[in-house]
Design a protein that fits this description.
heterodimer; A: 115 residues; mainly beta; 11 strands; B: 115 residues; globular
Protein backbone atom coordinates (compact mmCIF):
# COMPACT_ATOMS: atom_id res chain seq x y z
CA UNK A 1 0.00 0.00 0.00
CA UNK A 2 0.90 3.64 -0.31
CA UNK A 3 2.83 5.48 2.39
CA UNK A 4 1.73 8.69 4.04
CA UNK A 5 3.76 10.55 6.63
CA UNK A 6 2.80 13.28 9.07
CA UNK A 7 4.98 15.69 10.97
CA UNK A 8 5.10 16.29 13.83
CA UNK A 9 3.69 13.20 15.49
CA UNK A 10 3.06 15.08 18.73
CA UNK A 11 3.04 18.80 19.47
CA UNK A 12 2.34 20.80 22.60
CA UNK A 13 1.72 24.52 22.30
CA UNK A 14 0.51 27.44 24.33
CA UNK A 15 -2.97 28.83 23.90
CA UNK A 16 -3.05 31.53 21.23
CA UNK A 17 -0.20 30.20 19.14
CA UNK A 18 -0.44 28.63 15.69
CA UNK A 19 0.63 25.12 14.81
CA UNK A 20 1.37 23.66 11.38
CA UNK A 21 0.99 19.97 10.60
CA UNK A 22 2.48 18.49 7.44
CA UNK A 23 1.14 15.54 5.52
CA UNK A 24 3.22 13.96 2.79
CA UNK A 25 2.46 11.18 0.36
CA UNK A 26 5.77 9.43 -0.12
CA UNK A 27 5.13 7.28 -3.14
CA UNK A 28 2.10 8.74 -4.84
CA UNK A 29 1.08 12.05 -6.31
CA UNK A 30 -2.18 12.91 -4.61
CA UNK A 31 -4.53 15.41 -6.18
CA UNK A 32 -6.95 15.05 -3.29
CA UNK A 33 -6.14 14.74 0.38
CA UNK A 34 -8.38 14.69 3.43
CA UNK A 35 -7.99 16.02 6.96
CA UNK A 36 -9.75 14.39 9.89
CA UNK A 37 -10.02 15.13 13.58
CA UNK A 38 -10.47 12.43 16.18
CA UNK A 39 -11.33 13.16 19.80
CA UNK A 40 -10.55 10.51 22.44
CA UNK A 41 -12.66 7.38 22.12
CA UNK A 42 -14.53 8.83 19.16
CA UNK A 43 -14.63 8.25 15.46
CA UNK A 44 -12.88 10.20 12.73
CA UNK A 45 -14.66 13.35 11.64
CA UNK A 46 -13.84 14.80 8.25
CA UNK A 47 -12.75 18.41 8.50
CA UNK A 48 -11.93 19.28 4.92
CA UNK A 49 -10.94 18.03 1.53
CA UNK A 50 -7.72 19.43 0.19
CA UNK A 51 -7.35 19.82 -3.53
CA UNK A 52 -3.97 20.46 -5.11
CA UNK A 53 -3.71 23.95 -6.48
CA UNK A 54 -7.13 25.10 -5.33
CA UNK A 55 -8.95 26.05 -2.16
CA UNK A 56 -9.90 23.38 0.30
CA UNK A 57 -13.52 22.39 0.81
CA UNK A 58 -14.55 22.49 4.45
CA UNK A 59 -17.22 20.44 6.13
CA UNK A 60 -20.11 22.19 7.78
CA UNK A 61 -19.19 23.56 11.18
CA UNK A 62 -15.44 23.67 10.54
CA UNK A 63 -14.00 27.17 10.70
CA UNK A 64 -11.96 27.75 7.56
CA UNK A 65 -10.18 30.75 9.07
CA UNK A 66 -9.07 28.71 12.05
CA UNK A 67 -8.00 25.58 10.21
CA UNK A 68 -5.97 26.72 7.22
CA UNK A 69 -5.24 24.09 4.63
CA UNK A 70 -2.67 24.40 1.89
CA UNK A 71 -2.13 21.77 -0.77
CA UNK A 72 0.57 23.40 -2.84
CA UNK A 73 2.03 20.26 -4.39
CA UNK A 74 0.98 16.74 -5.28
CA UNK A 75 2.90 15.33 -2.34
CA UNK A 76 2.39 17.85 0.45
CA UNK A 77 -0.62 19.24 2.27
CA UNK A 78 -0.46 21.31 5.44
CA UNK A 79 -3.00 22.05 8.14
CA UNK A 80 -2.40 25.12 10.27
CA UNK A 81 -4.38 25.52 13.46
CA UNK A 82 -4.41 29.27 14.08
CA UNK A 83 -4.74 30.81 17.53
CA UNK A 84 -5.07 27.38 19.07
CA UNK A 85 -7.12 26.91 22.22
CA UNK A 86 -7.41 23.95 24.59
CA UNK A 87 -10.60 22.78 22.88
CA UNK A 88 -8.56 22.29 19.70
CA UNK A 89 -6.56 19.58 21.45
CA UNK A 90 -7.20 16.45 19.41
CA UNK A 91 -5.70 13.85 17.13
CA UNK A 92 -5.41 15.07 13.53
CA UNK A 93 -5.14 12.56 10.71
CA UNK A 94 -4.58 13.10 7.02
CA UNK A 95 -5.26 10.74 4.18
CA UNK A 96 -5.25 10.72 0.44
CA UNK A 97 -7.39 8.85 -1.98
CA UNK A 98 -5.96 6.52 -4.50
CA UNK A 99 -8.15 6.41 -7.56
CA UNK A 100 -6.39 3.29 -8.66
CA UNK A 101 -7.20 1.39 -5.50
CA UNK A 102 -10.46 3.20 -4.68
CA UNK A 103 -9.48 3.62 -1.07
CA UNK A 104 -7.87 6.15 1.23
CA UNK A 105 -4.41 5.79 2.73
CA UNK A 106 -3.91 7.31 6.13
CA UNK A 107 -1.04 9.07 7.83
CA UNK A 108 -0.02 8.05 11.35
CA UNK A 109 -1.69 11.11 12.89
CA UNK A 110 -0.58 14.11 14.93
CA UNK A 111 -1.51 14.56 18.56
CA UNK A 112 -2.04 18.25 19.36
CA UNK A 113 -2.16 19.40 22.97
CA UNK A 114 -2.93 23.05 23.63
CA UNK A 115 -2.12 24.26 27.12
CA UNK B 1 -26.20 12.14 3.26
CA UNK B 2 -24.88 8.75 4.12
CA UNK B 3 -24.87 7.41 7.65
CA UNK B 4 -23.01 4.45 9.12
CA UNK B 5 -24.12 2.77 12.34
CA UNK B 6 -22.14 0.42 14.53
CA UNK B 7 -24.35 -0.73 17.37
CA UNK B 8 -21.68 -2.55 19.40
CA UNK B 9 -19.43 -0.11 21.28
CA UNK B 10 -17.36 -2.93 22.80
CA UNK B 11 -16.87 -6.61 22.22
CA UNK B 12 -14.66 -9.27 23.68
CA UNK B 13 -13.54 -12.59 22.23
CA UNK B 14 -11.20 -15.30 23.36
CA UNK B 15 -8.12 -16.09 21.38
CA UNK B 16 -8.74 -18.54 18.51
CA UNK B 17 -12.48 -17.91 18.61
CA UNK B 18 -14.64 -16.19 16.00
CA UNK B 19 -16.30 -12.81 16.41
CA UNK B 20 -18.65 -10.79 14.22
CA UNK B 21 -18.85 -7.02 14.25
CA UNK B 22 -22.03 -5.40 12.95
CA UNK B 23 -22.45 -2.42 10.66
CA UNK B 24 -25.45 -0.93 8.91
CA UNK B 25 -25.56 2.05 6.61
CA UNK B 26 -28.01 4.24 4.83
CA UNK B 27 -27.61 5.58 1.32
CA UNK B 28 -29.60 6.32 -1.79
CA UNK B 29 -26.64 5.46 -4.02
CA UNK B 30 -26.60 2.21 -5.97
CA UNK B 31 -22.85 1.94 -6.34
CA UNK B 32 -20.39 2.59 -3.56
CA UNK B 33 -17.58 1.06 -1.49
CA UNK B 34 -17.62 -0.25 2.04
CA UNK B 35 -14.59 -0.70 4.25
CA UNK B 36 -13.54 -2.02 7.61
CA UNK B 37 -10.60 -0.18 9.15
CA UNK B 38 -8.65 -1.23 12.21
CA UNK B 39 -7.13 1.32 14.58
CA UNK B 40 -4.74 -0.29 17.09
CA UNK B 41 -3.36 1.59 20.10
CA UNK B 42 -0.79 3.22 17.81
CA UNK B 43 -3.80 4.94 16.20
CA UNK B 44 -2.59 4.21 12.67
CA UNK B 45 -5.62 3.47 10.50
CA UNK B 46 -5.20 0.13 8.74
CA UNK B 47 -7.46 -1.15 6.00
CA UNK B 48 -8.80 -4.60 6.89
CA UNK B 49 -11.12 -5.34 4.01
CA UNK B 50 -12.99 -3.63 1.18
CA UNK B 51 -16.24 -4.45 -0.62
CA UNK B 52 -17.54 -2.98 -3.86
CA UNK B 53 -21.31 -2.69 -3.79
CA UNK B 54 -21.72 -3.99 -7.32
CA UNK B 55 -20.05 -7.27 -6.39
CA UNK B 56 -22.36 -9.88 -4.92
CA UNK B 57 -19.53 -12.04 -3.68
CA UNK B 58 -18.46 -11.31 -0.13
CA UNK B 59 -14.89 -10.10 0.23
CA UNK B 60 -12.38 -12.17 2.21
CA UNK B 61 -8.85 -11.45 3.38
CA UNK B 62 -7.28 -14.37 5.19
CA UNK B 63 -9.01 -14.55 8.60
CA UNK B 64 -11.29 -11.61 7.81
CA UNK B 65 -14.50 -11.88 5.82
CA UNK B 66 -17.62 -9.84 5.39
CA UNK B 67 -21.31 -10.58 5.10
CA UNK B 68 -22.58 -7.95 2.68
CA UNK B 69 -26.35 -7.73 2.43
CA UNK B 70 -27.05 -4.90 -0.01
CA UNK B 71 -30.82 -4.92 0.26
CA UNK B 72 -30.63 -4.82 4.04
CA UNK B 73 -27.74 -2.30 3.92
CA UNK B 74 -25.75 -4.45 6.25
CA UNK B 75 -21.99 -5.05 6.22
CA UNK B 76 -20.70 -7.19 9.07
CA UNK B 77 -17.10 -8.26 9.66
CA UNK B 78 -16.21 -11.76 10.78
CA UNK B 79 -12.83 -12.39 12.34
CA UNK B 80 -11.88 -16.05 12.54
CA UNK B 81 -9.18 -17.55 14.74
CA UNK B 82 -8.89 -14.29 16.69
CA UNK B 83 -5.39 -13.26 17.71
CA UNK B 84 -4.18 -10.94 20.45
CA UNK B 85 -2.97 -8.57 17.75
CA UNK B 86 -6.54 -8.12 16.58
CA UNK B 87 -7.24 -6.04 19.70
CA UNK B 88 -8.15 -2.60 18.34
CA UNK B 89 -10.93 -0.21 17.43
CA UNK B 90 -12.73 -1.27 14.28
CA UNK B 91 -14.46 1.28 12.10
CA UNK B 92 -16.93 0.56 9.35
CA UNK B 93 -16.83 3.16 6.58
CA UNK B 94 -18.76 4.11 3.45
CA UNK B 95 -17.38 5.81 0.37
CA UNK B 96 -19.31 6.93 -2.67
CA UNK B 97 -17.89 6.50 -6.12
CA UNK B 98 -17.85 10.14 -7.12
CA UNK B 99 -14.73 12.20 -7.43
CA UNK B 100 -15.26 13.66 -3.97
CA UNK B 101 -15.07 10.15 -2.52
CA UNK B 102 -15.47 11.13 1.08
CA UNK B 103 -15.32 8.45 3.73
CA UNK B 104 -18.12 8.35 6.29
CA UNK B 105 -17.19 6.42 9.42
CA UNK B 106 -19.26 4.62 11.99
CA UNK B 107 -18.70 5.23 15.68
CA UNK B 108 -16.47 2.21 16.04
CA UNK B 109 -16.38 -1.04 17.98
CA UNK B 110 -13.64 -1.68 20.51
CA UNK B 111 -12.57 -5.32 20.25
CA UNK B 112 -10.62 -6.97 23.02
CA UNK B 113 -9.06 -10.36 22.37
CA UNK B 114 -8.35 -12.26 25.57
CA UNK B 115 -6.32 -15.34 26.43
Amino acid sequence: GAVVSQHPSWVICKSGTSVKIECRSLDFQATTMFWYRQFPKQSLMLMATSNEGSKATYEQGVEKDKFLINHASLTLSTLTVTSAHPEDSSFYICSYRSGFYNEQFFGPGTRLTVL
Amino acid sequence: AQTVTQSQPEMSVQEAETVTLSCTYDTSESNYYLFWYKQPPSRQMILVIRQEAYKQQNATENRFSVNFQKAAKSFSLKISDSQLGDTAMYFCAFMNTGTASKLTFGTGTRLQVTL
